[in-house]
Design brief:
There is one protein chain. The chain has 391 residues and is α/β, with parallel strands linked by helices. The chain folds into two domains: 217 residues, Aspartate Aminotransferase, domain 2; 135 residues, Aspartate Aminotransferase, domain 1 (Alpha-Beta Complex). It has 14 helices and twelve strands. Bound molecules: pyridoxal-5'-phosphate. The site of pyridoxal-5'-phosphate (PLP) has 13 residues, from helix 4.
């Protein structure tokens, strides 16, 4: 049967020879997945990953990435979401129903709290904040309706490191599920399942990408039934990730542990230099003595992210601290972290804590994310900006 060229270019008979092997896996892009016959179409079940049904339910590329992220976190199953925040909201939506209550640490990643406040509240799901530095306070906060406790180690921006194992045990004793935002630990510095956590979420946007050029999140579990509950929510919400982004992550993962260690080392060098500067009132970096929760960091972690905050002394005005940030040249002003470029963001500490001011948080907070530039150059940049702003 002779066919026109447009048809021939689509239904071309050539197939490349099998048996190609390269160091990196191939990249498969699909919305449509082709079935060999109607029987296959009817037989395949997207739930069990035994075959392919539709791009949203996975391709060899996303299945491969899921397996590697599950291994990274020490879990058994993984779901991918289009951002870290989407991974957080997926867990909430999949596991909570009207009348339930959610507990969040008071230093939780801000948008997670905003989701609870603005969306979950409208669906009749309440949330309460607990002090993550007080295990007894969490135990006391758990009520009949509590169905999920989020944990973060360390807390976003203010960097307090909680007694993670203690918090997880308190929730488990009451039969309540725990979910850890492990973006900081990245599965390298901290592994949540070793400390009794049920669900480990991560913003792959940060360390696993390392490029500051993609958004993705993961939800890892060890329990098949729990995974299935979250997977149903994932399916109903229509969450998918792009093959090109999955490809970038598969490209970046082999270097993850090396980047994490290098950024940890550089971060500690720069933090310890900054801590000694007269304008600095306090360093907030869990690997440093005197930072809130340092003993818990030692008990739980084998490393630290290249991320820390500094409190500039209250005697300076906020405008002076802003001038310091503006004077930086290599440190760029921007959100997110763990990319090659060092970043800096000033935060208003008073607006960060819904639970009221904390005595250890006095002064003007600036968060630093250390990239991959040479430490000496970053230090020189900080020195010139300190001199320009504080004299
Ligand atoms: C960045 C971040 C997220 C959200 O990740 P996105 O991909 O930016 O949505 C969640 N939790 C923490 C701790 C983060 O730092």
């Amino acid at each position: 049967m002779s066919r026109e060229l447009t048809t021939e270019l689509i239904h071309h008979p050539y197939a490349a020879p099998p048996g190609f092997e390269a160091a990196q896996p191939g990249v498969y892009k699909a919305s449509t997945v082709i079935f060999p016959d109607v029987a296959a179409l009817r037989a395949r079940d997207w739930r069990h990953k035994q075959g392919y049904t539709y791009g949203l339910h996975g391709t060899p590329t996303t299945f491969t990435l899921e397996e590697r992220i599950a291994t990274l976190e020490g879990g058994a199953q993984c779901l991918l979401a289009p951002s870290g925040l989407a991974a957080i909201t997926l867990v909430d939506i999949a596991l909570l129903a009207q009348g339930d209550e959610l507990l969040l640490p008071d230093n939780v990643y801000g948008p997670s709290r905003e989701f609870a406040r603005h969306e979950l509240a409208r669906w009749g799901i309440a949330h309460r904040l607990y002090d993550p530095m007080d295990v007894a306070a969490l135990a006391a906060a758990i009520g009949e309706r509590t169905k999920l406790v989020w944990l973060e180690a360390p807390g976003s921006v203010t960097m307090e490191f909680p007694d993670l194992a203690g918090l997880a045990a308190a929730a488990r004793a009451r039969g309540v599920l725990t979910a850890l935002d492990n973006t900081w630990g990245a599965g390298i510095g901290l592994r949540g399942f070793d400390h009794g956590i049920d669900i480990v979420m991560q913003a792959l946007t940060k360390y696993p990408s390392g490029g500051a050029d993609l958004l993705m999140g993961s939800v890892v579990t060890r329990d098949a039934a729990l995974h299935e509950r979250i997977k149903l929510g994932h399916m109903h919400l229509g969450l998918g990730v792009a093959a090109n982004d999955a490809e970038l992550l598969l490209r970046s993962l082999p270097g993850l542990a090396l980047r994490y260690a290098a950024q940890d080392r550089a971060g500690r060098e720069i933090a310890s230099w900054l801590e000694a500067q007269p304008a600095v009132r306090q360093l907030l970096h869990p690997a440093f003595e005197g930072s809130p929760g340092h003993a818990h960091w030692r008990a739980h972690c084998s490393g630290a992210a290249g991320l820390f905050s500094v409190l500039f002394d209250e005697r300076y005005g906020a405008a002076q601290v802003d001038a310091f940030v503006d004077a930086l040249r290599l440190f760029r002003i921007g959100y997110s972290w763990a990319g090659p470029t060092s970043l800096v963001v000033p935060y208003d500490v008073r607006a960060l804590r819904a639970g009221g001011p904390r005595p250890h948080l006095r002064g003007h907070l600036v968060r630093f994310s250390i990239g991959l530039e040479a430490v000496a150059d970053l230090r020189a940049d900080l020195a010139q900006a300190l001199a320009a702003a504080f004299g």
